[in-house]
Amino acid sequence: MLEVQGYCEPAFNPVRDLLQQRIAEGNEVGASLCVNIDGKNVLDIWGGYADASRTKPWEKDTLAGVWSSTKVVTCLAAHILVDRGLLDVDEKVATYWPEFAANGKENVKVSHILSHSSGLPAWDAPITPEEILDTKRATERLAAQAPWFTPGERNAYQLSNHGHFIGEIVRRITGKSLTQFIADEIAGPLSADFRLGLPKEDWSRAAEMIGFEMPPMTGIDPTSIMASAFMGSALPPTSPNEAGFRNSENGAAGGFSNARALARIGSMVSLDGVVDGKQYLAVSTLDKMMEEQIRGLDESVMQYVRFALGVALPSAIASWIPEDEGICFWGGWGGSMLIMDRGRRMTIGYAMNKMENRVMGNVNSEAYVQEIYKIVNASKKV
């Protein structure tokens, strides 16, 4: 069995041991895990295999499809524009994207999009994966669609279309695609190994995502928002292995990265906007970003969630994350996670290839995060 590689401060050896144990037991196939505190990686480890047949070692620079952990990066792209005075979250989307006002959406605000309360959690079905991955046409289809409920009144998670909304707003304001904006303003300046979509020259570094058989939607009201949201978000778990997915721009789920890069990007939040002496976001912008917008049983995923502006706040959807002020997070289908803790100036990133069909995190990320907080909290008591 391959040994876990990377840097680990002695206090975090139990986390390293836990990753090694999970790989040995087969609960993990391959994964990377990173903890950044005060701008320093106190844990930056990886191990296991990048393929289902366990023949290709997971390397330092292996990239995984991180699914909806991508939404955090997309959120930060929007808030960079807020910080520069180019985007107002309290303004109507149609101010920046006039066509969006069609079919009863004239009062949808940017804040409704960011907080998953837009009334548009998915496309009207039927829609195919190929249609979703045609970003231009899929975005135009959203602009023409009517909301499923009054925006701002309820929350229904925007599974696969969240990035189409924000990406188009970014494009209308800057003239750049979301892919280019993230590369120019976030990943590039931070030297973070994050890609929205995956260039062909990086395919050799990509881990094979190991999915699961989608369970039948038995017992779910076919007229419910949950049923409609999943029918209108038709992307299978192993999509990141496919050329069409890699070649597309999906700011909701199309990111490829590793734990180190996720933690590096998330440290923009945890470190109050300043990374390596460079101010990326003002404290006031981050404070606004983390203001709760809506809470309740999310009608797409049927879990209790507290949404701020592009990130979630601790709640029942991830009860293993401390309910402390200053923490925000989101994760990806299958288990990847990005947790930003401003109080502890700590960022946790996790990426893996063996997916679990769970709304938030997986059994492994839950165990790692609990162990990390146990160690960090104990050190503050000394």
In a few lines, what is going on in this structure?
This protein has helices spanning 13-25, 70-83, 93-96, 110-114, 129-133, 135-144, 162-174, 178-190, 225-231, 243-246, 259-270, 283-289, 363-381, and strands at residues 5-8, 30-37, 40-48, 64-65, 195-196, 255-257, 274-275, 278-279, 294-297, 304-307, 312-313, 327-331, 337-341, 346-352. It is α+β, with helices and mostly antiparallel strands and 382 residues long. The model has no long low-confidence stretch (mean pLDDT 96).
* Spatial order of the strands forming the largest sheet: 1-3-2-14-13-12
Q: State the distance separating the first and last CA atoms.
A: 36 Å
Largest sheet: 6 strands, antiparallel
Number of strands: 14
Q: Which stretches are poorly predicted, pLDDT < 50 over at least 5 residues?
A: none
Briefly note the structural class of the backbone: alpha+beta
The first-level CATH class name of the domain at 64-196 and 209-255 and 291-313: Alpha Beta
Q: Provide the β-strand percentage band.
A: 15-25%
CATH topology of the domain at 64-196 and 209-255 and 291-313: Beta-lactamase
CATH superfamily of the domain at 64-196 and 209-255 and 291-313: DD-peptidase/beta-lactamase superfamily
The percent range for helix content is 25-40%
- Written as H for each helix and E for each strand, in order along the chain, the element string is EHEEEHHHHHHHEHHEHEEHEEEEEEH
CATH architecture call of the domain at 64-196 and 209-255 and 291-313: 3-Layer(aba) Sandwich
Please state the CA-atom Rg, rounded to the nearest Å: 19 Å
